[in-house]
Every structure is written in structure tokens, then in C-alpha cells.
Amino acid sequence: MKNTASGVAIVLILGACAAHAADLPFAKDAPVFAPPPPPALWSGFYGGVNLGGGWAAGGQNSVLPYADPAFPIGASVYGATNLFLLPGGGNTSNNTGGVVGGAQVGYNFELRPSIVIGGEADIQGASITGGNAGNTIVAYPSPLAPGDVLVPLATGNGGNLGLPWFGTLRGRVGWLAMPTLLVYGAAGFAYGEVTAFNSSNTRTGWTAGGGLEWMFASNWSAKLEYLFMDLDSGGVTGAWGWNYGYHRHPQVNVLRLGVNYHFNSGAPAPVLARY
């Protein structure tokens, strides 16, 4: 009888434990947490260097200094200075070019799922100069004396377009064709030093273009970029107060390769502790 009672007690205890265990949450009933999204590859500050080439876009006639041979060069005649900067017959549209290289800094902000916006500033050194083989002398009537003709003081390449340095400040908008490949357009402000016949001045204008940028390693990207630049305002026409200055309006194509280091690229997502 005692053994029977003990057996019944054991069965009751086991049953109570099983019922209590049935009330405990199992793993299958635990809430499911979605994994965090992958870290943004493009967001944050970056900086880098670039190298490429530039060439004139559109015809830019060379300029030459002229004077009336009947009067001393630079003399004031009837209130006008006997020194004129006028277009020559040469053209620099096909042979004005050179190397460009410099550095850039910028900031990107990645908008999920595939849009990147930001801004970039760069400064470039350049060897863009004209290589005009010669100039056709153009006859201009002298404004100083009826019947006189102005004669050129030089026939070389001194009047051709030169661009020893320039810089831009641009906004960028891009689309991620792949998580590591950005296709973007850019536009903004441009400025640079323009030289013509041994005179120079700083001009301002605008630029627009676009490119491809590839994140080829952690924090590192390479880019291929094209820009059109139009320095259409600011500065002066020429040196020595030309009476009839030839207003330089340089338009330049720029194609360059660059590499950037992204300071915040691929930062690990925060770890959420579970209690």
C-alpha cells in the first residue's frame, strides 16, 4: 500500500512539472528580430587626389596687341591710349590643352535604398595653354587718325588662352547602380586664373558634368569624371587698360581620374543588447 501511494505521488509531481513546463516560453515563441541593415558605404567625409587633362571647348580666337604707327606706343592721343588688344586670325579651338591635377574634399549622405547626395570642392593646377602655329594679321582702321591702319606689335602665341589653375565647388546627386558603384551628376561654381598676352586675371563662372565612382576596397573609391567649365564673368579684359579689349570667354573640357579615402565608410552598425 505504501509503495502504491509513493508511485501515485511521483506521477502527480511529474505531471505538475510537465504542466508548468508547458507554460514556459519556448524559442519558437520568442519575438523575431530583423537583422540591422548593412552599413552605409558612402555616407561621410572623404578626400583624395586626381589627375587628367583639359582642352578648350569651342573656338577662341587668339588676341594680338595693335598700335597706330603714326604715334608712340602707349601714348595718349585725343584721350585714347595707342595700344589695342584685338582678335588675330588664329584659332585655338583644336590645339589648346594640357594636364590637370589636384585634390578634392567632399561629403556624401546616402539615402536608402539607392540615392547619394553631397557636395565637393576641388583645386587644380593646370598646364592648359595654346599652341597656335601662327596668326593671320587682320587689318583694323585706326580710331586715332582717319586713313591710318593699326599694325600688330607681335604675331606669336602670346595672346592664346592660358589656364594655370582653377577650382570648383559643386553639388552632387548620384544613383547606386550597385552597392559599390555610384553614377552621379554634378554642377556648381567655378573659378580660375585666365591668361592672355602676358596678362592674367581671375575669372568666375559655372561648371557641370558627371562621372562614375567605384568603392573598390574598404574606405577606398576610384572615380572617372568629366566636367565642362565656362569662366564667363569677372576679371578684366586685358593689361594696360586696352581701349578695345577682347573679352576672353574660356570654355574648357576636363576629364580626370581620381581616388578618394572615405573616413566613415562601412562603419559597423550599433550592437543592441538583449536582456
In brief:
This protein has 275 residues and is mostly beta strands.
Describe the structure.
The chain is rod-shaped. It has one domain: Porin (Beta Barrel), CATH 2.40.160. The chain is mainly beta. The strands form three sheets. It has an eight-stranded antiparallel β-barrel. A four-stranded antiparallel sheet has the order 5-2-9-8, with no helix packed on it. Strands 3-4 form a two-stranded antiparallel sheet.
Instruction: Give the strand order of the largest sheet, numbering strands 1, 2, ... along the chain.
Output: 1-6-7-10-11-12-13-14
Helix residue percentage: under 10%
Q: What is the global morphology?
A: rod-shaped
Structural class: mainly beta
Provide a count of the helices.
Answer: 1
Approximately what portion of the residues adopt beta-strand conformation? over 45%
Number of strands: 14
Features:
275 residues, mainly beta, Porin, 8-stranded antiparallel β-barrel, 4-stranded antiparallel sheet, disordered C terminus
Helix and strand layout, with pairings?
Elements: H1 2-22, E1 44-56, E2 61-67, E3 76-77, E4 80-81, E5 84-91, E6 96-111, E7 115-130, E8 140-141, E9 149-152, E10 162-178, E11 181-196, E12 199-217, E13 220-233, E14 251-262
Antiparallel strand pairs: 1-6, 1-14, 2-5, 2-9, 3-4, 6-7, 7-10, 8-9, 10-11, 11-12, 12-13, 13-14
